[in-house]
Amino acid sequence: MERLNDLPTAGLWNIFQELSKIPHASGNEKAIAGWICSFAEKNGIEAFTDQAGNVILRKKASEGCENSPSVCMQGHMDMVAVKTPESRHDFTKDPLSLKIEEINDIPYVTADGTTLGADDCIGVAAALAVMTEPELRHGPLEALFTVGEEVSMVGMNELEPGLLRSSLMLNLDSENDEEVTVGCAGGEDARFRFPLTQAASRRVRRIEVTLSGLTGGHSGIEIHKNRANAICVLSRILKTAADKYSVSLQAFTGGTFRNAIPVSASAVIYCEPDRCDELRTLLNDAFTSFSEKYAQTDPGMKLTVELSEQEEKIAATDSDTSASILNTICEMPDGVITMSDEFEDRVETSCNLGLIRTENSVITTESLMRSLISTGPVAQTLADIADRHGFKVEFSNKYPCWTPSRNSILLKQYERIYEEFNFKKPDVCVLHAGVECGLLLGKYPDMDVISFGPTIIGAHTVEEKVSVYSVEKFYGMLTQMLEELA
Q1: Quick one: pLDDT at residue 15?
Q2: Could you give phi then psi for residue 127, rounded to 5 degrees?
Q3: What burial class does residue 137 get, using C-beta atoms within 10 Å of its C-beta: 0-12 exposed, 13-18 middle, 19+ buried?
């Protein structure tokens, strides 16, 4: 990481490294919020937290710029906490292990065996670097760093209207430096509950089935890449078995976050002792068809079937209940639902089955629906599936889409500056992911907002990395915008 010390953005990278030492998975942002407040106060910047735990910073304008419009830079403090199966990293106490990786002679910062958290601590670091840039001439500045963005945008949901003073906002949570975002999808969560009804005791053998090695990815930005969803694939493999044999589903676990495409899933099933070998063969045959289907997107996919040697006499889950659960999961929409008619090559509506858990004899699933228009049709589909199979589904955490403004002053300024830096125009896009701007505009409807950021690859996966050169351009454009607005 020493290579970064000679760059114009050395201050930004120093801040990012300090932030990376502090555990800040979603729900555990108190320590990083405290560090930011202490950093601000040491640098003469007003800092406070609101009732939700969001951090708000304010810095007075440079001399002579007091009458310039106030600009708020916005990002989120939490990160998606994912690690490799062999990693011993503890996200509650361990610092991230950062390193530089070369791809086609281009340097990227990444983490060893875990997500990097550049989504969005690179935006947070940029805002803090701006506020401590000694030569930067600027108007009144604010910064808003939210909690829980990766889990239903908790902090922005609870942000108090009227707390911010700015009329302009630069959201620093985009992940492609060739784009400027002027709109985004809204979202809604769906949660199914599947009680495991027990049958009479019978002699069975235990089989543990594990699907792993999938590519995964961000369920908004990468949902169109048609990568395999571990929960969906394993459900279909298990359904193949349940359609032919008397199978008891005892446990099903998979996924890490509802907004990440699951990379692994495992299930425990029971079957009649004399059918287990046949069943194992059937499971492996079913897997073969999926491994061929996803050979290009998920070349590392593998299935492990572990069959116990001992028979047991237990009250396993009723086979009809098991079949019904698997049928329901297999019917749930997942992936791209519709493409946009208005925005070329953009997903309009999608659904990601991101989590499945088993606790106290109940299996639960969590799906995240996204749409540029309305999640209502997908929610209705899920409700119909639940009714048809006799299960319950609950909907929550609905947030609005961000409708593009055709008259944005910030957009026109950014397009011009971007062309100066890159000798071409940026792609003006609507993002099929949930940035917080839609919720913000519900509280501050007159605010002018755009979103931009450096190129981040593999967000929400252990392959997450951020381009060093891209960060240089991103920070240069950010500081130029603020100087011009002053």
Answers
A1: 97
A2: -65, -40
A3: middle
Q: Which segments of 243-316 does DSSP mark as H helices, in order?
A: 276-293
Annotate 164-174 with b (16+ C-beta within 10 A) or e (fewer): bebebbbbbbb
C-alpha neighbours within 13 Å on the C-beta side of residue 274: 0
- CB contact set of 89 (below 8 Å; sequence gap of 6+): 83, 96, 97, 113, 114
Closest residue by Cα to residue 309 from 266, 268, 277, 267: 277
Residues whose CB is less than 8 angstroms from the CB of residue 138 and which lie 6 or more positions away in sequence, other chains included: 59, 61, 62, 65, 68, 71, 130, 482, 483, 485, 486
Compute the distance between CA of residue 209 and CA of residue 234 in angstroms, rounded to an integer: 8
Q: Give per-residue pLDDT as tens, 161-174.
A: 999 999 999 999 99
Interval 108-161: pLDDT, tens: 999 999 999 999 999 999 999 999 999 999 999 999 999 999 987 899 999 999
Backbone angles phi, psi at 373, to 5 degrees: -120, -65
Tokens representing residue 292 in the block: 């061929």
Smallest CA-to-CA distance from 393 within 195, 191, 188 is with 191
Q: For the chain, first and last CA: distance in Å? A: 34
Distance CA 402, CA 300 (A): 36
> Token match 């235990």: residue?
206
Task: Tell the burial category of 7 from Cβ atoms under 10 Å away from its Cβ (0-12, 13-18, 19+).
Answer: middle
Q: For residue 215, what are the CA distances in angstroms to 84, 262, 263, 290, 460? A: 12, 8, 6, 14, 11
The 10 Å Cβ neighbour count of residue 239 is 19
* Chain centroid offset of residue 455 CA: 15
Token code pair at residue 328: 């329901």
User: 3-state class of 295 per DSSP?
Assistant: coil
Residues 143 and 74 sit within 8 Å (Cβ to Cβ)? yes
Q: State which amino acid sits at residue 266.
A: S
Above 80 in pLDDT, residue 406?
no
Determine contact, residues 376/398, Cβ cutoff 8 Å.
no
**CA-angle at 447, arms to 444 and 451, nearest 5°:** 110
At residue 404 the predicted structure's pLDDT band, cuts being 50, 70 and 90, is: confident
Q: DSSP string covering 368-414, please?
A: EEEESS-SHHHHHHHHHHHHHHT-EEEEEEEE--BPPPTT-HHHHHH
In one-letter notation, the amino acid at residue 84 is T
Active-site amino acid positions:
78, 149
Rg (CA), the chain: 24
> How many whole angstroms separate alpha carbon 294 and alpha carbon 155?
37
Q: What DSSP element (H or E) covers 180?
A: strand 179-184
Q: Residue 64 in 3-state DSSP? A: coil
